[in-house]
Amino acid sequence: KWGLETEWLGKSIIFKEKIDSTQDVAHRLARKGAEHGTIIIADRQLSGRGRMERQWISDDSGGIWLSMILRPPIPPHQASQMTLFVAVTLVEALERATGLSIQIKWPNDLFINGKKITGILTEMQAELEAIQYLIIGFGINVNQNIDHFPEEIRDLVTSLQIVSGKEWNRTNLVQTILQEFEEAYQNYIDNGFELVKKKWIAHAYKLHEKIWIKTTQASFYATVQGISNEGALIVRNENGEEKLIYSAEINW
Ligand code: BTN
Fold first, then answer.
1. Is the CB of residue 100 less than 8 Å from the CB of residue 112?
2. pTM for the predicted model, two decimal places
3. CA–CA gap between residue 75 and residue 129 (Å, rounded)
4. Is the CB of 80 under 6 A from ligand 1?
5. Is the complex ipTM more than 0.95?
6. Closest CA to 93 of 192, 181, 158
7. Which atom of ligand 1 is nearest to the CA of 42?
8. Per residue in 142-184, pLDDT tens?
9. Region of 42 on the Ramachandran plot (φ > 0 left; ψ -120 to 50 alpha; else beta)
10. From edge to edge, which strands make up the β-sheet containing 219-227?
11. Whose CA is nearest to atom 7 of ligand 1?
């Protein structure tokens, strides 16, 4: 049905019309030993989850709601690299599939024309010094029109249909994404994070533009320069000093 030409990613794909959250199903399956590369896709989610306990609206059909179970041979402290790797890979796959220009807003939102098109949620189960599994979930707004979104967020979000004026075949998009993902994953595991960092910079939202950052210690103007190996945002303040941002409120 999915017509995939992958070796391990999506060898097992579980599709549900309606589900609470693909993320939760993925956790259950992973705990029972589901293999590396298992994918869960839903047409609708009744309680889709976003980062920081936020809700992810996905109870209507129209988007791609997907979680994957990965068992990468990397230490737990490198898990944040995986999130950035996923963002970079999704950007490239979506740009190739749609011809649209897409940016990454740190840490892991994908933006088109300054509005959110995709969110990524990485959850890890680790024991001692090893990752048991990662659940990487992403939601891509595809065929929703603007009325689909609650009024409070209409200025902040968009979909492929809204920006391009046409409907997209979700199966084809999933195919492109998974095929590209498998190839890029191997490259990341074999060759490390350097290439991901370069690609991240090539797609960084507001690269070198002035933004306002508020951390628990300070607030200041800065410009985005790149990302570190730990997944921190590298910025330069107005005195020309580089700072690493691990978590902050940012006014873009
Ligand atoms: C965010 O931007 O806060 C992340 C959103 C992640 C949404 C996806 S949709 C598929 C998977 N299942 C969920 O419940 N959440 C993720």
1. yes
2. 0.96
3. 6
4. no
5. yes
6. 181
7. 10
8. 999 999 999 999 999 999 999 999 999 999 999 999 999 999 9
9. beta
10. 242-245, 233-237, 219-227, 210-214, 249-251
11. 139
